[in-house]
Amino acid sequence: METNSHTHTRRLGRSGIQVSALGFGCWAIGGEWQAPDGQPLGWGTVDDEESVRAIHRALDLGVTFFDTADVYGTGHSERVLGRALGKRRADVVVATKWGNLFDESTRTADGQDDTPAHARRALTASLDRLGTDHVDLYQLHLSDADPERAAELRDTCEEFVREGLIRAYAWSTDDPGRAAVFARGAHCAAVQHRLNVLQDAPGLLALCQESDLASINRSPLAMGLLTGKHTAGRALAAGDIRSAPPAWLPGFTADAGADPEWLGRVEALRDILTSEGRTLAQGALAWIWARSPRTVPIPGFRSPAQAEENAGALAKGPLTADQVAEVDRILGR
Fold first, then answer.
1. DSSP reduced 3-state for 138
2. Which helix (H) or strand (E) holds 139?
3. d(CA 128, CA 79)
4. How many CB atoms lie within 10 A of CB 143?
5. SS (H, E, C) 35-71
6. I want to staple 170 with a disulfide (CB 3.0 to 4.6 A). Which of 132, 190, 331, 333 is the partner?
7. Cα separation of 329 and 333, whole Å?
8. Tens digits of residue pLDDT in 145-175
9. Which ranges of 98-233 would DSSP assign to H, the alpha helix?
10. How many C-alpha atoms does 20 have within 13 Å on its Cβ side?
Protein backbone atom coordinates (compact mmCIF):
# COMPACT_ATOMS: atom_id res chain seq x y z
CA MET A 1 0.00 0.00 0.00
CA GLU A 2 1.39 3.41 -0.87
CA THR A 3 2.30 5.53 2.12
CA ASN A 4 0.27 8.70 2.17
CA SER A 5 -0.86 11.11 4.80
CA HIS A 6 -4.37 9.65 4.80
CA THR A 7 -3.23 6.28 6.06
CA HIS A 8 -0.43 7.34 8.37
CA THR A 9 -1.75 10.41 10.15
CA ARG A 10 -5.00 11.49 11.72
CA ARG A 11 -6.32 14.81 12.97
CA LEU A 12 -7.37 15.08 16.61
CA GLY A 13 -10.83 16.36 15.81
CA ARG A 14 -11.40 20.08 15.63
CA SER A 15 -8.10 20.84 17.41
CA GLY A 16 -6.25 20.35 14.13
CA ILE A 17 -3.45 18.56 16.03
CA GLN A 18 -1.91 15.93 13.76
CA VAL A 19 -0.98 12.53 15.20
CA SER A 20 0.17 9.22 13.80
CA ALA A 21 -2.81 6.99 12.96
CA LEU A 22 -1.46 4.60 15.59
CA GLY A 23 -0.94 5.74 19.16
CA PHE A 24 0.76 3.87 21.97
CA GLY A 25 -1.03 3.17 25.24
CA CYS A 26 1.22 3.46 28.30
CA TRP A 27 -0.84 1.60 30.92
CA ALA A 28 1.34 -1.52 30.91
CA ILE A 29 4.65 0.33 31.31
CA GLY A 30 3.43 1.68 34.65
CA GLY A 31 4.24 -1.71 36.17
CA GLU A 32 2.41 -3.28 39.09
CA TRP A 33 -0.10 -1.34 41.19
CA GLN A 34 -3.28 -2.25 43.02
CA ALA A 35 -6.64 -1.33 44.48
CA PRO A 36 -6.98 -1.03 48.29
CA ASP A 37 -8.27 -4.62 48.45
CA GLY A 38 -5.19 -5.92 46.63
CA GLN A 39 -6.89 -6.31 43.23
CA PRO A 40 -4.09 -5.96 40.65
CA LEU A 41 -4.52 -2.95 38.34
CA GLY A 42 -1.38 -3.26 36.25
CA TRP A 43 -0.18 -5.78 33.67
CA GLY A 44 2.55 -7.38 35.75
CA THR A 45 6.18 -6.47 36.28
CA VAL A 46 8.06 -4.33 33.78
CA ASP A 47 11.65 -3.42 33.04
CA ASP A 48 11.81 0.38 32.78
CA GLU A 49 14.86 0.32 30.50
CA GLU A 50 12.99 -2.02 28.15
CA SER A 51 10.00 0.39 28.23
CA VAL A 52 12.28 3.30 27.30
CA ARG A 53 13.77 1.30 24.42
CA ALA A 54 10.25 0.44 23.22
CA ILE A 55 9.23 4.11 23.23
CA HIS A 56 12.37 5.07 21.31
CA ARG A 57 11.66 2.31 18.77
CA ALA A 58 8.10 3.58 18.36
CA LEU A 59 9.38 7.12 17.76
CA ASP A 60 11.81 5.84 15.13
CA LEU A 61 8.93 4.03 13.39
CA GLY A 62 6.82 7.20 13.14
CA VAL A 63 4.55 6.90 16.18
CA THR A 64 3.88 10.41 17.51
CA PHE A 65 0.96 9.89 19.93
CA PHE A 66 1.42 8.51 23.44
CA ASP A 67 -1.48 8.03 25.85
CA THR A 68 -0.99 7.61 29.59
CA ALA A 69 -2.77 8.49 32.86
CA ASP A 70 -1.60 9.83 36.20
CA VAL A 71 -2.89 6.68 37.94
CA TYR A 72 -1.06 4.14 35.73
CA GLY A 73 1.51 2.62 38.05
CA THR A 74 0.49 5.46 40.42
CA GLY A 75 2.60 8.01 38.56
CA HIS A 76 5.23 5.61 37.25
CA SER A 77 3.98 5.47 33.67
CA GLU A 78 4.15 9.27 33.34
CA ARG A 79 7.66 9.33 34.80
CA VAL A 80 8.93 6.63 32.41
CA LEU A 81 7.28 8.28 29.39
CA GLY A 82 8.68 11.70 30.29
CA ARG A 83 12.18 10.29 30.69
CA ALA A 84 11.98 8.35 27.42
CA LEU A 85 10.77 11.33 25.41
CA GLY A 86 13.39 13.71 26.80
CA LYS A 87 14.51 16.16 24.12
CA ARG A 88 12.05 14.63 21.61
CA ARG A 89 9.04 15.90 23.59
CA ALA A 90 8.39 18.58 20.95
CA ASP A 91 8.03 15.91 18.24
CA VAL A 92 5.14 14.09 19.91
CA VAL A 93 1.58 14.53 21.17
CA VAL A 94 1.17 13.49 24.81
CA ALA A 95 -2.21 12.59 26.28
CA THR A 96 -2.78 11.89 29.96
CA LYS A 97 -5.80 11.55 32.26
CA TRP A 98 -6.99 12.65 35.68
CA GLY A 99 -9.68 11.93 38.26
CA ASN A 100 -8.33 9.00 40.26
CA LEU A 101 -6.55 9.31 43.60
CA PHE A 102 -3.49 7.24 44.45
CA ASP A 103 -0.55 6.83 46.80
CA GLU A 104 2.73 6.65 44.92
CA SER A 105 4.63 5.26 47.92
CA THR A 106 2.39 2.18 48.30
CA ARG A 107 1.46 1.97 44.58
CA THR A 108 -2.21 1.91 45.56
CA ALA A 109 -5.12 3.62 43.80
CA ASP A 110 -7.70 4.82 46.27
CA GLY A 111 -10.82 6.76 45.36
CA GLN A 112 -11.74 9.47 42.93
CA ASP A 113 -12.03 13.25 42.95
CA ASP A 114 -14.23 15.04 40.42
CA THR A 115 -13.67 18.59 41.69
CA PRO A 116 -12.17 21.37 39.56
CA ALA A 117 -9.62 22.02 42.32
CA HIS A 118 -8.36 18.45 42.05
CA ALA A 119 -8.13 18.74 38.26
CA ARG A 120 -5.67 21.62 38.69
CA ARG A 121 -3.62 19.77 41.32
CA ALA A 122 -3.55 16.65 39.16
CA LEU A 123 -2.47 18.57 36.05
CA THR A 124 0.34 20.30 37.95
CA ALA A 125 1.57 16.92 39.22
CA SER A 126 1.34 15.30 35.77
CA LEU A 127 3.34 18.12 34.17
CA ASP A 128 6.03 17.57 36.79
CA ARG A 129 6.19 13.79 36.29
CA LEU A 130 6.18 14.13 32.51
CA GLY A 131 8.85 16.82 32.63
CA THR A 132 6.91 19.14 30.33
CA ASP A 133 5.19 22.54 30.44
CA HIS A 134 1.98 21.42 28.73
CA VAL A 135 -0.18 18.36 28.02
CA ASP A 136 -1.48 18.11 24.46
CA LEU A 137 -4.68 16.22 25.33
CA TYR A 138 -6.03 16.14 28.90
CA GLN A 139 -8.68 13.48 29.52
CA LEU A 140 -11.21 12.96 32.30
CA HIS A 141 -10.62 9.40 33.54
CA LEU A 142 -13.94 8.97 35.40
CA SER A 143 -16.08 7.14 32.85
CA ASP A 144 -19.34 7.51 34.76
CA ALA A 145 -18.87 10.96 36.31
CA ASP A 146 -21.97 13.06 36.90
CA PRO A 147 -22.77 14.99 33.67
CA GLU A 148 -23.41 18.26 35.52
CA ARG A 149 -20.07 18.04 37.30
CA ALA A 150 -18.48 17.10 33.99
CA ALA A 151 -19.78 20.35 32.49
CA GLU A 152 -17.90 22.21 35.25
CA LEU A 153 -14.76 20.20 34.49
CA ARG A 154 -15.15 21.02 30.80
CA ASP A 155 -15.10 24.72 31.73
CA THR A 156 -12.04 24.09 33.92
CA CYS A 157 -10.31 22.50 30.92
CA GLU A 158 -11.13 25.60 28.85
CA GLU A 159 -9.31 27.62 31.55
CA PHE A 160 -6.31 25.31 31.24
CA VAL A 161 -6.30 25.91 27.46
CA ARG A 162 -6.35 29.68 27.97
CA GLU A 163 -3.43 29.37 30.41
CA GLY A 164 -1.42 27.30 27.90
CA LEU A 165 -1.27 24.28 30.22
CA ILE A 166 -3.13 22.01 27.76
CA ARG A 167 -3.93 22.24 24.05
CA ALA A 168 -7.16 20.23 24.03
CA TYR A 169 -9.20 17.87 26.19
CA ALA A 170 -11.41 14.78 26.06
CA TRP A 171 -13.43 12.38 28.20
CA SER A 172 -12.55 8.71 28.51
CA THR A 173 -16.03 7.16 28.61
CA ASP A 174 -18.09 4.54 26.80
CA ASP A 175 -21.32 6.56 27.18
CA PRO A 176 -22.19 8.73 24.14
CA GLY A 177 -24.50 10.91 26.26
CA ARG A 178 -21.68 11.78 28.65
CA ALA A 179 -19.18 12.29 25.83
CA ALA A 180 -21.62 14.76 24.26
CA VAL A 181 -21.36 16.98 27.37
CA PHE A 182 -17.63 17.47 26.79
CA ALA A 183 -18.17 17.75 23.02
CA ARG A 184 -19.93 21.07 23.58
CA GLY A 185 -16.64 22.65 24.68
CA ALA A 186 -14.71 24.61 22.05
CA HIS A 187 -11.42 22.81 22.70
CA CYS A 188 -12.79 19.29 23.16
CA ALA A 189 -10.93 17.26 20.55
CA ALA A 190 -11.76 13.60 21.15
CA VAL A 191 -13.51 10.84 23.03
CA GLN A 192 -11.46 7.95 24.34
CA HIS A 193 -13.51 4.75 24.33
CA ARG A 194 -13.27 1.01 23.95
CA LEU A 195 -13.27 -0.19 20.35
CA ASN A 196 -12.08 -3.44 18.84
CA VAL A 197 -13.28 -5.91 16.24
CA LEU A 198 -15.13 -7.89 18.95
CA GLN A 199 -16.62 -4.81 20.67
CA ASP A 200 -17.94 -2.21 18.24
CA ALA A 201 -19.07 1.27 19.39
CA PRO A 202 -21.42 2.69 16.74
CA GLY A 203 -22.95 5.31 19.03
CA LEU A 204 -19.61 6.85 19.94
CA LEU A 205 -18.32 6.76 16.37
CA ALA A 206 -21.50 8.57 15.28
CA LEU A 207 -20.95 11.24 17.94
CA CYS A 208 -17.35 11.72 16.79
CA GLN A 209 -18.57 12.19 13.23
CA GLU A 210 -21.32 14.66 14.22
CA SER A 211 -19.14 16.68 16.60
CA ASP A 212 -15.84 16.59 14.67
CA LEU A 213 -13.97 14.64 17.34
CA ALA A 214 -11.24 12.03 17.14
CA SER A 215 -12.07 8.52 18.35
CA ILE A 216 -9.18 7.34 20.55
CA ASN A 217 -9.50 3.60 20.95
CA ARG A 218 -8.51 1.79 24.11
CA SER A 219 -8.54 -2.02 24.20
CA PRO A 220 -7.97 -2.16 20.41
CA LEU A 221 -6.60 -5.69 20.85
CA ALA A 222 -9.28 -6.69 23.40
CA MET A 223 -6.78 -6.68 26.28
CA GLY A 224 -4.54 -9.06 24.35
CA LEU A 225 -7.14 -11.54 23.07
CA LEU A 226 -6.55 -10.30 19.51
CA THR A 227 -2.81 -10.96 19.63
CA GLY A 228 -3.29 -14.73 19.34
CA LYS A 229 -0.99 -15.28 22.33
CA HIS A 230 -3.67 -16.52 24.76
CA THR A 231 -5.04 -20.04 25.09
CA ALA A 232 -7.93 -21.26 27.22
CA GLY A 233 -7.08 -22.83 30.56
CA ARG A 234 -3.80 -20.98 31.01
CA ALA A 235 -3.95 -18.72 34.06
CA LEU A 236 -2.15 -15.38 34.01
CA ALA A 237 0.54 -14.14 36.41
CA ALA A 238 -0.73 -12.82 39.74
CA GLY A 239 0.22 -9.15 39.19
CA ASP A 240 -1.75 -8.97 35.93
CA ILE A 241 -5.22 -7.36 36.07
CA ARG A 242 -6.49 -10.10 33.72
CA SER A 243 -5.68 -12.76 36.35
CA ALA A 244 -8.49 -11.40 38.57
CA PRO A 245 -10.57 -9.48 36.05
CA PRO A 246 -12.99 -6.81 37.32
CA ALA A 247 -16.56 -6.81 35.98
CA TRP A 248 -15.76 -4.29 33.24
CA LEU A 249 -13.12 -6.56 31.72
CA PRO A 250 -14.84 -9.35 29.75
CA GLY A 251 -13.01 -12.09 27.86
CA PHE A 252 -11.01 -13.40 30.82
CA THR A 253 -11.90 -15.59 33.80
CA ALA A 254 -10.25 -15.58 37.21
CA ASP A 255 -9.16 -19.22 37.17
CA ALA A 256 -8.77 -20.15 33.54
CA GLY A 257 -7.28 -17.16 31.70
CA ALA A 258 -8.84 -16.32 28.35
CA ASP A 259 -12.54 -17.13 27.90
CA PRO A 260 -12.92 -19.99 25.35
CA GLU A 261 -16.01 -18.38 23.83
CA TRP A 262 -14.10 -15.18 23.08
CA LEU A 263 -11.15 -17.14 21.72
CA GLY A 264 -13.57 -18.92 19.38
CA ARG A 265 -14.66 -15.58 17.93
CA VAL A 266 -11.03 -14.57 17.41
CA GLU A 267 -10.38 -17.87 15.63
CA ALA A 268 -13.40 -17.33 13.34
CA LEU A 269 -11.90 -13.99 12.23
CA ARG A 270 -8.33 -15.21 11.84
CA ASP A 271 -8.34 -15.62 8.04
CA ILE A 272 -9.68 -12.10 7.41
CA LEU A 273 -7.47 -10.39 9.98
CA THR A 274 -4.28 -12.12 8.78
CA SER A 275 -4.85 -11.22 5.11
CA GLU A 276 -2.10 -9.41 3.15
CA GLY A 277 0.54 -10.93 5.41
CA ARG A 278 -0.69 -9.19 8.56
CA THR A 279 -0.27 -10.65 12.02
CA LEU A 280 -3.52 -11.10 13.97
CA ALA A 281 -2.84 -7.92 15.97
CA GLN A 282 -2.09 -5.94 12.81
CA GLY A 283 -5.39 -7.13 11.31
CA ALA A 284 -7.26 -6.04 14.42
CA LEU A 285 -5.77 -2.55 14.07
CA ALA A 286 -6.56 -2.54 10.34
CA TRP A 287 -10.23 -3.20 11.16
CA ILE A 288 -10.30 -0.15 13.46
CA TRP A 289 -8.86 2.13 10.76
CA ALA A 290 -11.42 0.81 8.29
CA ARG A 291 -14.25 1.37 10.77
CA SER A 292 -13.85 5.18 10.71
CA PRO A 293 -11.30 7.70 9.41
CA ARG A 294 -11.42 9.32 12.88
CA THR A 295 -10.02 6.35 14.80
CA VAL A 296 -6.66 6.31 16.59
CA PRO A 297 -6.07 2.93 18.26
CA ILE A 298 -3.70 2.94 21.25
CA PRO A 299 -2.49 -0.64 21.86
CA GLY A 300 -0.33 -1.24 24.91
CA PHE A 301 3.28 -2.38 24.63
CA ARG A 302 6.17 -3.42 26.84
CA SER A 303 9.00 -4.25 24.44
CA PRO A 304 10.63 -3.01 21.22
CA ALA A 305 9.31 -6.16 19.49
CA GLN A 306 5.72 -5.24 20.38
CA ALA A 307 6.38 -1.68 19.24
CA GLU A 308 7.58 -3.01 15.88
CA GLU A 309 4.63 -5.34 15.40
CA ASN A 310 2.07 -2.65 16.22
CA ALA A 311 3.79 0.02 14.10
CA GLY A 312 4.09 -2.50 11.26
CA ALA A 313 0.30 -2.32 10.88
CA LEU A 314 0.59 1.27 9.57
CA ALA A 315 2.27 0.22 6.32
CA LYS A 316 -0.47 -2.30 5.55
CA GLY A 317 -3.30 0.20 6.06
CA PRO A 318 -6.99 -0.49 6.75
CA LEU A 319 -9.08 -3.53 5.80
CA THR A 320 -11.35 -3.18 2.79
CA ALA A 321 -15.07 -2.41 3.07
CA ASP A 322 -15.82 -5.97 1.92
CA GLN A 323 -13.64 -7.39 4.67
CA VAL A 324 -15.37 -5.24 7.30
CA ALA A 325 -18.76 -6.49 6.05
CA GLU A 326 -17.51 -10.08 6.24
CA VAL A 327 -16.40 -9.54 9.86
CA ASP A 328 -19.91 -8.34 10.72
CA ARG A 329 -21.42 -11.37 8.96
CA ILE A 330 -19.20 -13.81 10.87
CA LEU A 331 -19.96 -12.16 14.22
CA GLY A 332 -23.69 -11.95 13.39
CA ARG A 333 -24.11 -8.19 13.77
1. strand
2. strand 135-140
3. 9
4. 17
5. CCCCCECCECCCCHHHHHHHHHHHHHCCCCEEECCCC
6. 190
7. 6
8. 999 999 999 999 999 999 999 999 999 999 9
9. 116-130, 147-162, 176-183, 202-211
10. 28
